[in-house]
User: What shape does this take?
Amino acid sequence: MSINIANKKHYEALIALWERSVRATHDFLPESKIQSLRPLILEKYFPQLTSYYYADNDKILGLLGLSDDKIEMLFIDSDARGLGVGKTLLNFATDELKMNQLDVNEQNTQALKFYQDMGFEIKGRSELDGEGDPYPLLHLEKMDS
Assistant: This one.
């Protein structure tokens, strides 16, 4: 098991993982929204972010995307949920890279609970998501322990 920095050659595997993860956890998103996000993430967001992937025996199980000061993405393959991949990637981001802020869709209650269990607190809310659509975001921050 390892955490590695991703580059363009990993994008197709990472976008496939993203889609499986979204379908498993974002049941509030219509198919049209998933389809419109896919090329946007692949062509716009991946190149802008510093991304890491978690692999076990060369199988990519998790994706972590970071901007300069924020965790922008944390997606776990639907088959790897509950195996500690998310905790490992989140701890890597917070402990090693000193990232302590992220946003989560308000309707994604499983993710919200996970982040709260990992020490994040709600610090704010936006009515619209990053694309201006009505999927409210909660702004979370991990306080120093």
